[in-house]
Amino acid sequence: MTYDLRLIRMTDLIVQHPTNAPDDSPIVVMIMGPTAAGKTNLAIECVEQFGCELISVDSALVYREMNIGTAKPDAQELERAPHKLIDIIDPTESYSAANFREDALREIKSTLSRGKTPVLVGGTMLYFKALQEGLSELPGADEGVRAQLEADAESYGWQKMHDRLAQIDPVSAQRIHPNDPQRIQRALEVYEISGKTLTEYWQSQSAQALPYNLLKIAFFPEDRDLLKQRISQRFHQMLELGFIEEVEALRGRGDLNLDMPSMRCVGYRQAWEYLDGLSTYEEMTEKAIIATRQLAKRQLTWLRKEKNCNFYDINQAIYLKILKKLKNLL
Questions:
Q1: Which among 328, 290, 324, 296 has a CA at the least distance from the CA of 45?
Q2: I want to staple 162 with a disulfide (CB 3.0 to 4.6 A). Which of 94, 151, 178, 302 is the partner?
Q3: Same domain, 163 and 102
């Protein structure tokens, strides 16, 4: 996705203008950050102070009956600030980034039609990326084509395969290192299957770019130990609220298993295995907290790649600072 350099600082907040968004396009706010950073608190304040409407960007909150372990906003919070795209599918169903993009675009358009500002809040960074940049529908793997490419590479070497890619798709060849056989193979495979280069797919994806001005607020904690503490405290609180009983009820349905995306959500797998007798309560707790910390680390890795983003540490004073700045913008 290509952006021009039309960046505007309004009350010290960077507003990003994609090249396909006119200057007078409405603002869409994105509140991003790792798990347990306090994103929901800020989002609720946006609703109560500025009349915004919230759209969840969370791959776990889409599931019904999964409330405690996903840290879903409780009934009181949802009454204060309703969230779109929460509780929309059963745990037996799958939900993709493409599904999210379609649903989110619809909700953004609906919110703007009512004269409200959409605030997208969550930590599923793949969803944020899909929404901002679109999705290229690359062809699936073809074992026959892949086997032939591997045979060619064995005969001629990967440098020759890279040379072949340079003739077909010089842009991708410049981006892909000659010592990266997996990506060389995939680029050639896409062309052999579809007759289109990877570059053509990416250009098609860019045409799907979000046509709004984006105000991206991201929580990026300076003190990682503080985030680890918050993750641990929150999981222990989940246990006190009845998380194990929630997973027990899900297991009791009889139509769920650990291979389903819903049950692969952080915490649920560990609790399920505990109920199966595969770990002690203490081991389950430790594994779930470690898995959540690993999730937060991956989220922060994604955030580092966000362009033109307003980064803030996590504390109450920061919330007040952000809200003060937003007051003159929304």
A1: 324
A2: 178
A3: no
Residues 6+ apart with CB under 8 A from 149: 161, 185, 188, 189, 192
| C-alpha separations of 283 from 85, 207, 232 in Å | 33, 48, 14
User: Are residues 102 and 246 located together in one domain of the fold?
Assistant: yes
**Which residues have a Cβ under 8 Å from the Cβ of 209 and sit 6 or more positions away?**
1, 18, 19, 20, 132, 133, 134
Q: Structure pTM?
A: 0.79
Among 56-70, 145-159, 235-249, which stretch is predicted with the lowest mean pLDDT?
Answer: 145-159
Single out the residue of 135, 140, 157, 158 nearest to residue 210, CA to CA: 135
Q: Domain range holding 163?
A: 143-206
Q: What are the pLDDT digits (tens) for 252-271?
A: 999 999 989 999 999 999 99
End-to-end CA distance of the chain: 26
Residue 205 binned pLDDT confidence (cut-offs 50, 70, 90): low
Residues 6+ apart with CB under 8 A from 164: 188
Instruction: Please identify, among 167, 187, 206, the residue that sits at the C-terminal boundary of a domain.
Output: 206
Pull the structure tokens for residue 263: 């049950």
CATH at 230: 3.40.50.300
Nearest to 83 by CA among 68, 62, 98, 99: 62
Model confidence over 134-192: pLDDT tens digits?
A: 877 778 888 888 999 999 999 999 999 999 999 999 999 998 988 888 889 999 998 99
